[in-house]
Structure formats: C-alpha cells, structure tokens
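Appendix B. Chain record.
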Amino acid sequence: METNSTVEYLKKQLDKPFTHSISPSTLLLGGTLRYIAVGETWVDYPIKHDLTNPIGMIQGGFLAAIIDDTIGIAFFSMEPKYMFTTTNLNVNYLFGARKGEIVRAKANVIRMGKKIANFECKVYNMKGDVIASSTSNLVVTTVKAIRFTDVQAQLKSL
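Structure tokens predicted for this chain:
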C-alpha cells in the first residue's frame, strides 16, 4: 500500500475530531477523520445547529462545504508540489440530514494530472444511504503546497 508522511501523520489523527487545522472551515464543520490513504479519505461530520436551514436540515451550501473539505484532505494526502484551487464543484443533492445526525463523506481522486486534478465525493447518512454525490476539478496554482508535517511544527511553536 502506498503511503507518505502526510498519510502517516493523518493516520495518527484517526477517530479524533479535528481540533487543529490550516483551514478554519475544517474546524467550523467539526469533522472526525475515519480513514485515510493516498488520494482517499472518509470523514464523519455532525450536523450541528449552525449548519442547518430553518426546517432543521443541513443547508445545501454547508453540504457542499463538507464535500469540498473532504476532497481537500484527499488532495493533501497526495503531497502535491503546488496548491490547487477548486474550479468547479458539481453537487447532486439526493436527500437531507437533520440536526443531530452524522454524515460520512468519502472522497477519492479520479485523476491527478499536472494541471488538473479530478475528484469525486459521496456523502452518506448513517443508514448508508447516499445523500449527495459530487465531482470536482481543481487547477494547479503557483503557490507551493503546504505539508502537514510543516503545519504540525508550526502548531507546536504556538
């Protein structure tokens, strides 16, 4: 099985809620890493009150954020040399999730090219039903990629 320093670092974070992240949105969403491999991750997210619409269901934008966040983790697990940014995120909303429920997002790379990365992500309720499916393209930037090992050193110095 392929591995790298980012995957090894994240494996130590399995089954723990994210309490440190380079991404403030990751902390807002409050996910717990359940599985990590190169180019693939599963994250559980609680549907908190702050993520719901007036009828107590997850608001669509937050569901898209969960997808984008999970894809970002799968992307970083591949230790790219440069950052990529999302150019599109196509989401099919199939079902909802209520406040208090937990959803599991599973993202994986379809193709990692030199200029474009293509990912897919599905979000499941705890019954195993798909509540959203998506694909996303990311495009390379000129910004050097951040390494989780560098972030870990920065967090220790705080």
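Further analysis of this model is presented in Appendix C.
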